[in-house]
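For reproducibility, we list the full input for the zinc ion complex.
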Amino acid sequence: MDLSARILVCVALGAGIAPATVLEGSPVDATPAIRQYLDHSRFAWNCERTEHFQFCFEPKSLAAQSIRDLKIIAEDNRSAILELVGIPNYDPLIYAFFVNSRSQMKRLIGAKVDGRARPTQHATFYVIDGPRTLAHEITHEILSNVWGAAEPWIEEGFAVYATESPILDDDCRDYIRAHRLLPLEQIVNPRWDSSMYSADITYTELGGFVKYLERTYGIGRIAQVWQQGSQSIPQVYGKSLATLEREWLASLSRLPADRSNCITLTGEASSCPVTGTSTIETPTILISRPHRSSWK
Ligand SMILES: [Zn+2]
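The corresponding predicted structure, in tokenized form, follows.
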């Protein structure tokens, strides 16, 4: 489906803006949870639809300048995530709110972060400075609603894997060389949260480990651990976390090291060289490494 066919509705919403004008397609009935953002007195949103998203951004913002690209990226990210986890359909309309700064984010949702998902509301939020991947928060949105809530280590690990797969192995190798990877038992547990250690390291490490689990043992066991927690790992995989950790680190030492060149401005991961035992590269759009310390 081409982009013009995807764009069904164009509305203007928010305080001080003309009432919503539906140009084409069905009007969007926002839930009370969404209305708290749409009706926020400090924001004057323009909102536009695609098939699966409602995008809201401020006029003349960087997001407004990039909205055509962002629509394509969001739909592509959503499709890639559904394919990765083997989900044929996902019906909820996903809201994507774009703001210009962490200060604006704090004003809107009460947290000074670059990205945030609120899956129970089907709402995602981003500080945007141009076209970029939206996959991390979309992963939270979809998996939390399809598989339920999980321990944070696997929620974040899977979101990083889904978003940054092509660069994870090299990034993990860099941390291994620098002796900065943490023993997995310190982060693969119900207690870990992103404030405990360097999020740049732990997000990368969890993403790399989840990637290894998924590529080696499949998505079904990931779903089991997602729903049963880290304590189920020995039963699900038939081996301890420590054994899986040794396997993962050994696999990194066997894989070719140079994967950095496969990241392009448009995220054409399909042009990456094939390495390891898998010939499938997660469709990914990456423009720069995220600053994970400000993500959730
Ligand atoms: Zn996250």
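The longest strand covers residues 94-99. The radius of gyration is 19 Å. Both points were considered when choosing residues for closer inspection.
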